[in-house]
Amino acid sequence: MRKIHVDKGDRVGAGQVLVELESPELDQQVANARANYELQTATNRRNQELVCAVEVTSGVAPDDMTALNVGQAVRDGETVQPVLAEEK
Predict the structure, then answer these.
(1) Looking at the domain assignment, is residue 14 inside a domain?
(2) Calpha distance 61→70 (Å, rounded)
């Protein structure tokens, strides 16, 4: 446990934080997700600038936008499920 907010016999209310738990593995996952989001944000910004300057093929930016959207979903705690492209 990281921190205990109440003592034995204390009255507590609904929604009150009682304890803070340590979870090094989860903390590392959150840090990795944030770092990945920041990387995808920087990559997207760079690609958008390059697209405006017509220095990048049109196929690059959409893939990076997908990665950015996945990064945002992971950062926000959403479940990301892969979508497989249908074979033609």
Answers:
(1) no
(2) 14
